[in-house]
Design a protein that fits this description.
381 residues; alpha/beta; FAD/NAD(P)-binding domain; 5-stranded parallel β-sheet; 8 helices; 19% helix; globular
């Protein structure tokens, strides 16, 4: 049930979840099934809003396939007994399609979600979180789960002149871009997705990346291109409209005479573009709103978590979603981070005095992984 308002007498909750995307909806459903009744999801826009803001042509890189009948849930499912492939009838959903899936299951399972609830401030006082919601009255929570995504926080400050470029997240549809030639800065998933889409529209594209990720080969798609993206690239590059340029770290972008000049570190050659360069440089962490509530890894700047995905600094603050990381193990895709839902639900359930044995059934479905010793192994062939 979508919550229309928070009544005065229910201003204090056992659990508040910030974010109504894949992570927020998924962990909420598990907590409801566990028996947590006094909880709410705060979504600053609408369920699945980040996915709705994707470029229209962008699709999930992980394939959806209905295998629930055989004991394996869809790679893009966030709740048991559901499958985006079954709901949507497609293998690689667009952002709009996946948002439709999330919205549908939220309503089907009557999840308590308050939309248009913009979190403006969070305080931690006397073992409770005090959450301000703009002009609305603040609410309090014993446990806070941070499930906000990253798509609303594009990284646009990597080098001088980045403000002259357009971030891929700001593109509504690649069909709306005018011009015949484009430069893309960043060659991971979003950069190659942009290149493939622009090339398919007959445009010439240059992709710049200092690490040339298109040449990397590991079995962890968090570190290199997914098979879906790599296949699309191989097929489109045959049209001879995409040029991949490695060892090219951008130093700055300038504009003069209506042209954009891209200068690279340790190179005298510049590239000149008549169209705005496209930034495919990823996103900043949504944890910027709660930075002070976490300890941070000194070198790689990710939040440090306990074995229950709880902040090592602030008791009762849990993290779910693509920003979860344990040393070298990265949980940045849906089928990865959903594995930790059971861990968080178990920790909260135990502290609330609930019977958490119901969570054991999630292990076989890939929704409850608490032993990370099996992670990180490469394929033999």
């Amino acid at each position: 049930m979508l919550v229309k308002e928070i009544k005065k007498e229910t201003y204090r909750f056992d659990v508040v979840i910030v974010g109504g995307g894949a992570a927020g909806v998924g962990i909420c459903a598990m907590l409801v099934n566990l028996g947590v009744q006094d909880l709410v999801v705060l979504e600053r826009d609408e369920v699945g809003a980040s996915f709705r803001n994707w470029p229209k042509e962008m699709r999930l890189i992980t394939p959806s396939f209905t295998t629930n009948f055989y004991g394996n849930i869809d790679l893009n499912s966030v709740i048991s007994g559901t499958s985006p492939a079954f709901t949507l009838g497609c293998e690689h959903p667009t952002g709009d399609e996946y948002a439709y899936y999330l919205d549908g299951i939220s309503k089907h399972y009557n999840l308590p979600i308050l939309e248009n609830a913009n979190v403006t401030n969070i305080e931690y006082v006397d073992d409770f979180f005090r959450i301000s919601l703009g002009d609305n009255k603040p609410i309090e929570a014993r446990f806070l789960i941070w499930a906000a995504g990253e798509f609303q926080y594009p990284d646009k400050q990597l080098f001088p002149g980045a403000e002259l470029c357009i971030h891929n997240s700001e593109v509504n549809s690649w069909r709306k871009l005018r011009g015949r030639e484009y430069c893309i800065i960043g060659g991971y998933e979003s950069g190659i997705d942009a290149a493939v889409n622009l090339s398919s529209l007959g445009k010439s594209v240059k992709v710049f990346d200092s690490s040339a990720p298109w040449d990397d080969r590991t079995t962890d798609p968090s570190l290199n291109l997914s098979p879906y993206t790599r296949q699309r690239l191989y097929e489109e590059i045959l049209n001879d409209r995409i040029k991949l340029i490695g060892d090219s770290r951008v130093e700055r972008v300038t504009k003069s005479g209506g042209k954009y000049r891209i200068k690279f570190v340790d190179k005298t050659e510049e590239y000149i573009s008549s169209t705005k360069p496209i930034l495919a440089t990823g996103f900043k962490s949504s944890l910027s709103q709660v930075t002070d509530f976490f300890d941070w890894h000194e070198e790689e700047s990710f939040a440090l978590l306990t074995e229950d995905d709880e902040s090592t600094k602030t008791p009762g603050l849990f993290l779910v979603g693509p920003q979860v990381r344990h040393d070298k193990i990265i949980f940045c895709f849906i089928y990865k981070f959903r594995q930790r839902f059971g861990v968080v639900a178990n920790a909260i359930g135990n502290r609330l005095g609930l019977d958490t044995s119901v969570l054991e059934s999630y292990r076989s479905e890939g929704l409850y992984l608490d032993d990370l010793s099996c992670c990180g192994e490469e394929c033999e062939c």
